[in-house]
TrEMBL record:
The keyword Transmembrane helix applies. It is a multi-pass membrane protein. Pfam families: AA_permease_2. Gene3D superfamilies: Amino acid/polyamine transporter I. This is Amino acid permease. Keywords: Membrane, Transmembrane, Transmembrane helix, Transport. Its main location: membrane. The keyword NAD does not apply. It is found in: Membrane.
Amino acid sequence: MSVKVPAQEGLGDSEHLKVLGYDDSFNRSMTLWANFALGFTYLSPLVGVYSLFAVALSIGGPPSIWWLVIVGSGQLLVSLVFGEVVSQYPIHGGIYPWTRRLWGRRYAWMAAWVYIWAMIVTITAVAEFGSGFAASLFGIEHTNESTLFITLGFLLVALAINFTGTKWLSRVARIGLAAELVGVIGVGLYLLIFQRKQEFSVFFDTMGVQGDGSYLPAFLGAALAGLFLFYGFEACGDVAEEVENPARRIPVAMMMTILVGGVSGLLAFGGYVMAAPDLASIVNGTDTDPIPGILEASLGSVGAKLFLVIAITAFLSCVLSLQAAASRLLFSFARDGMIPGHRWLSKVSPTSKVPRNALIVACTVPALICILIWVNNDLLVPVTSFAVLGIYVAFQMVVLGALRQRLKGWKPAGPFSLGRWGFVINVVALAYGIFAMVLLAIPGTTGDFFTDYVVLIGLGIVAGTGLLYLFIARPDKKSDAPEGDAILVAEKLRAMAD
């Protein structure tokens, strides 16, 4: 694999962007470390492991930890495909401009529409889950009202930080990265080394979750342990025009996000399993929120409080990164005239050099969803259930678009290149993505139609409304930005370097 093409040495960031049809409108103040921090805090292994630990163990037992390895490996392949695409197209918005330049306007519209809603719902979910940590830290009774106000607080604080500009976004992302590393790697290692109450062989012990039948269905059901964790690396590409030397740095940041996130998730998940004083009660579903008890028993009350501070920092940083990524996607969508209110949404603040109007939308819509959840608390699960499947659908639209261009003769011209391995990795990444989407879309077995099919219902509603708007309003006809030009752009970049 090659990460450097000598022929591209003389092509600067502004020159590269001009070839793609855009002028520099942002401050390129984001370093490789800050870009990695943005992706890592969006991926947030602390948030993912905490949210799914009990569910995964109750479905698949301790062997469910291996889904972190399986999904991490699959998503690493996806990140390699993304790396080649963003290296040729270091443009704000990630999923939207990539699918547009790899396929076309309508295809990009659907990819972006699904992805925007998945991101907005994810912002809502992360802020909602983070409110519980804040309530516990400050001794606030956990009611619907307190949850609403704390959740709105998370959203507004993140908005205020994002308003200040890319430098503060980078700083807080780095703080969030440090909190994540302490909260998952530090605590995980401590639990594994000093608080171990199980043998390592427990990770091969199903503990009877399969009953009298085969273990395979139970193991497949526990796939959520990995599938809900390994996304967020694409956010590194959402802010491409604010990164110096993005064609080289962003692919590296994406891979770092997956690798460090995977190790962090494994240490955290493994540490909680090994330190659980009553693992059987978690596996049989009696203890549905075991991590506070594990931390209290292992770290003491003071240590548990310190962990809450770390967790709140991680949740806030995750919301911050999500808002930033969503706003850049909205800006990119609007800059090409592809969304209602595009003139307003495509404005960039002359002082802070961030798309403030898009940021307002990325805060306001999640806030409105939070109010709906406050009115009916049962809406949280159905509102958020489609988010992960929607994100995987959008990811695979990029992977499929890249494969289509390869079959037409595309040879990526960015400084990050997979070389002769590109086609094979692209095919395997697509196969993995289809497998992951099937796992996410498999209906439940509760017998209640809405509960069992809520993921598909959510995705169907979002995709259906997107298709209706696409064919009624025809936003694709209102935009003349380039599309489907991967081969032509690659040829132009190579010609400029000669």
